[in-house]
């Protein structure tokens, strides 16, 4: 997936991935601090989220913006689709005990957190588009 973005839309990847990584890092740190979730191995705390914070989530956010820009898809629909895809992926991690929830957190709240995250990424993209119309 990342190779497609590098080849077809490097600009989106370079502008959206950093903000996606920052949002993921903040949300994961808050969630782990509040004991809402744990990533295996638990004893490594924040280090266990690095592949997600700098890999999966930035690429997902970049690919979502790419789909909105180049396929002229409805932003709300794309935000929901990508949130649903990542929630399903997280269900797989839960099934294999790679992610554990606590303090009332559940898969529904996970979906909401992905919706909010992708909405923030889209809002950032809209701000960039107003500042630099060629970014659209």
Tell me about this structure:
This protein has 136 residues and is mainly alpha-helical. It has one domain (10-131). Helix content is 72%, strand content 4%. It has five helices and two strands; from the N terminus they run H-H-E-H-H-E-H. It has a two-stranded antiparallel ribbon. Helix 2 (10-33) crosses helix 5. It is elongated. It starts with a helix and ends in a 5-residue tail after the last helix.
Topology diagram in text:
Blueprint (H helix, E strand, L loop, with lengths): L1 H7 L1 H24 L3 E3 L10 H21 L4 H21 L3 E3 L5 H25 L5
Antiparallel strand pairs: 1-2
Outline: elongated
**How many domains in all?**
1
Distance between the termini: 21 Å
For the largest sheet, list the strands in their spatial order: 1-2
Helix-strand pattern:
HHEHHEH
Using brief descriptors, characterize the structure shown.
two-stranded antiparallel sheet, 5 helices, mainly alpha, 136 residues
């Amino acid at each position: 997936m990342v190779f497609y973005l590098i080849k077809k839309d490097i600009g989106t990847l370079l502008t959206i991935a950093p903000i996606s990584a920052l949002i993921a890092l903040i949300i994961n740190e808050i969630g782990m601090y509040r004991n809402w979730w744990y990533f295996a191995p638990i004893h490594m705390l924040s280090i266990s989220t690095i592949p997600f914070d700098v890999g999966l989530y930035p690429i997902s956010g970049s690919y979502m913006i790419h789909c909105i820009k180049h396929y002229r898809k409805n932003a709300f629909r794309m935000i929901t689709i990508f949130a649903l895809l990542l929630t399903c992926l997280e269900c797989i991690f839960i099934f294999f005990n790679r992610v554990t929830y606590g303090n009332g957190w559940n898969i529904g709240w996970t979906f909401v957190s992905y919706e909010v995250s992708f909405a923030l990424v889209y809002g950032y993209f809209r701000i960039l588009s107003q500042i630099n119309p060629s970014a659209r």
